[in-house]
Amino acid sequence: MVIMTHKIAVIPGDGIGIEVINEGVKVLNCVSQLDPKIQFEFTHFPWGCEFYSKTGRMMDDDGIERLSKFDGIFLGAVGYPGVPDHISLWGLLLRIRKSFDQYVNVRPVKLLKGAPCPLKEKSPKDINMIFIRENSEGEYAGSGSWLYRDKPNEVVIQDGVFSRVGCERIIRYAFELARTEKKSLTSISKGNALNYSMVFWDQIFQQLSQEYPDVETHSYLVDAAAMLMITKPERFEIVVTSNLFGDILTDLGAAIAGGMGLAAGANLNPEGNFPSMFEPIHGSAPDIAGKQLANPLATVWSASQLLEFFGYKEWAARLIDAIEYLLVEQKTLTPDLGGTAKTADVGDAVVAYLQKHFA
């Protein structure tokens, strides 16, 4: 038997991140117990806003160098009152994404069986999309100027940076996924108003589409896409879009697919030159931190993404099966899903499901 050991850096972060990441690690350890060929070596790092309050840094100065030695990163959440959001975000999450060229952000927007949906006439067959979000440049490139600070003529300039390399590689990744999954691909932009960046994006999408004649393609303006995600979500299968639009639309997607407690995300360096990072996208929710009220199912979903990235598609699917079982059974759910269970109870229930069906 060939044993694969994956070195995973665990960054619980802030707020409920600490609670939910414990359940994600618990579930991955269960997978290792049930399938000894798959082993994980977890190393925890105390980085985040509490670390910042003590040191003035969101992570150690050599943090990126230390993380580079791992196969993957499992992140809880970032952000806490008292630390400005731009400091917590740029000091940890975005620093990791950019340093490791995690240019692909994968966010599933899939209505699972048993999950609540505010769109009363829609069912799981109608809401089943994968967002491929550009994750390294665009509106989050961090480029701009702040002129005449605190003066009456103060001016700020925030640049959106769109390179041909950056646009081509994310759009090509989406085309390859659409071809593999035999699904349509939709590009979302705003070319009518953003007459440089989004026109450039649209042109590259059109150019690359010539290489994939077997892939059905669509293009929508972002405002129209937001409307259609509510009225006709079945139009979307694989979606590719820019950093900012992807960030906003996937939160909208979470709202129609069970809520933020079921929202997971993967930050990938597909070539494997650097570690990829897996995280729930619900934030640190400091108002409920430490109360065992947080829903860990998004973290379990991100653990499923981690397993899929490392090639364990069967186990990845089993974790989704476990989530659906809990949603349908409705016996072990946290308050956001109408239940009374504690965070750890939900993790234990996922483990019990896996042990019962796959031991």
UniProtKB/TrEMBL annotation:
Isopropylmalate dehydrogenase-like domain boundaries: 7-350
The record's listing under Pfam families reads:
Iso_dh
Q: Which domain of life is it from?
A: Bacteria
Q: What sort of enzyme, by top EC class, is this?
A: oxidoreductase
Supply the PROSITE patterns for this chain: IDH_IMDH
Q: Which GO terms describe its molecular function?
A: D-malate dehydrogenase (decarboxylating) (NAD+) activity; magnesium ion binding; NAD binding
Reported cofactor(s): Mn(2+); Mg(2+)
InterPro entries in the record, alphabetically? Answer: ICDH/IPMDH, IsoCit/isopropylmalate_DH_CS, IsoPropMal-DH-like_dom, TTC_DH
Give the enzyme's EC designation. Answer: 1.1.1.83
Bilayer-crossing regions? none
Catalytic activity reported:
(R)-malate + NAD(+) = pyruvate + CO2 + NADH
Record key words, sorted: Manganese, Metal-binding, NAD, Oxidoreductase
Q: Which family does it belong to?
A: Belongs to the isocitrate and isopropylmalate dehydrogenases family.
UniProt protein name: D-malate dehydrogenase (decarboxylating)
- What is the species of this protein? Mannheimia succiniciproducens (strain KCTC 0769BP / MBEL55E)
Print the organism lineage: Bacteria, Pseudomonadati, Pseudomonadota, Gammaproteobacteria, Pasteurellales
Q: Gene encoding this chain?
A: leuB
